[in-house]
Specification:
Radius of gyration: 25 Å
Low-confidence stretches: 101-105, 107-113
Distance between the termini: 60 Å
Mean pLDDT: 80
Oligomer: single chain
Length: 120
C-alpha cells in the first residue's frame, strides 16, 4: 500500500523540524533541571536505594512541602479549567471525598444490603 501524505514535502520538513525542536527543548530543560537540582535528586536516589518505594511523606521529608497548594479532589483539578463541564461526580463516586464521620449513614445501608435487607 502506498501512503500519500495530505501535505507537501516542504510541510513535512517543517513538521519534522518543529517536532525535533520540541523534543530538544524538553531534553534541554530536563537536563538543566536535573543539574540544578542535583543535590535533591541524589537525596531521593539514596532513599530509593534504601527503601525501593517512597511515599508522599518521604518526599516532603526530603524536599519540603510543594511551593503551591495541592489539589485533592476531582473538582479541584478540573474546576478552574474554564470549561462548561458538569463537575458532579457519578452517583457511585459521590461519597468518595467525604470524611469517614460523614459516611457512617452509607456504611449502615451497605451493611443492610449485605444482610439481604433493603433489597426488593
Amino acid at each position: 500500500p502506498v501512503f500519500d501524505k495530505p501535505y507537501s514535502e516542504a510541510t513535512a520538513k517543517l513538521i519534522d523540524e518543529e517536532a525535533h525542536d520540541l523534543v530538544q527543548n524538553a531534553y534541554d530543560r530536563t537536563t538543566k533541571l536535573l543539574t540544578d537540582k542535583r543535590e535533591a535528586v541524589e537525596l531521593v536516589a539514596q532513599r530509593l536505594l534504601e527503601h525501593e518505594v517512597l511515599s508522599r511523606d518521604d518526599m516532603i521529608e526530603l524536599l519540603g512541602k510543594r511551593p503551591f497548594d495541592e489539589k485533592h479532589t476531582y473538582e479541584d483539578f478540573v474546576g478552574e479549567t474554564g470549561g462548561d463541564e458538569d463537575l458532579e461526580l457519578p452517583v457511585g463516586l459521590q461519597g468518595l471525598n467525604k470524611d469517614d464521620d460523614e459516611d457512617d449513614s452509607d456504611a449502615d445501608s451497605d451493611e443492610e444490603l449485605e444482610d439481604g435487607e433493603g433489597k426488593d
